Amino acid sequence: MTCEELCWEPVAALPEGEPETSFGGHWEDRLWLNVPGPFYTGIADNCWTGRLHAPRHVLYGGEYLGEYVYRQPATKAEVRNLVTAAQEDPYRGYACDGDSRWTPEAVRDWWRDRGQVTEYLESLLPSWSSSDRSEEREAAEGLRGFAAYINEGLGRDLRKYLFRLEVLRDAWNEHEGVTVVDDAWV
């Protein structure tokens, strides 16, 4: 991994006027399916518009099938796609303050409990895959994508995120030396 990959701040790629314009979600409303990172949803709409703009990042779930972030953006273009999804949410349920909310322990807890996420995805897949509704069949592709990402890729991305939380955030906040991140948790 390059320093650029480890140090990239997705929130810094927000366009002018953001997050004030489109992001109003609250941490206490965060849907448990959101992957750790700066972007997440609280109470978001269930109109299924998020995947129209950010299909590699947004899925639908929870009690009311609201939108949630299943993959954090890794490029400026992906941030813009997520912003567009947030702009379409009439509840302003998207948020981008996860870096100040997630702790290393909470990230590790989410990863440890990822089996619950996988089970949830598997519970939706049969009905969405065979649905008469094209939106559900398309979202089933997202379920498959999220499950594949959990199995290959998300662990690496969470290690990078932990580095940002454990090393860079502390270094930026305290201007002290850095320590080595233990990635044995994955």
Concise account of the structure shown:
With 186 residues, this protein is mostly helical. It has helices spanning 3-7, 50-53, 76-87, 104-112, 114-129, 134-151, 154-174, and strands at 40-41, 58-61, 66-69, 94-95.
Walk me through the structure.
- The protein has 186 residues and is mainly alpha-helical.
- Helices cover 46% and strands 6% of the residues.
- The protein has a two-stranded antiparallel sheet.
- β2 and β3 form a beta hairpin.
Strand and helix layout:
Elements: H1 3-7, E1 40-41, H2 50-53, E2 58-61, E3 66-69, H3 76-87, E4 94-95, H4 104-112, H5 114-129, H6 134-151, H7 154-174
Helix pairs in contact: 5-6
Observed structural traits:
single chain, 186 residues, mainly alpha, two-stranded antiparallel sheet, 4 strands
Shape: globular
As a percent range, the share of helical residues equals 40-55%
Number of strands: 4
- Give the end-to-end Cα distance, rounded to a whole number of Å: 17 Å
Mean pLDDT equals: 90
The helix-and-strand class reads mainly alpha
Strand content: 5-15%
Strand order of the largest sheet: 1-4
Low-confidence stretches: 175-186
Strand/helix succession? HEHEEHEHHHH
- From the alpha carbons, calculate the radius of gyration and give it in angstroms: 16 Å
Q: For the report, how would you describe the main beta sheet?
A: 2 strands, antiparallel
Assembly annotation: single chain
User: What is the count of DSSP helices, taking H or I runs of 4+ residues?
Assistant: 7
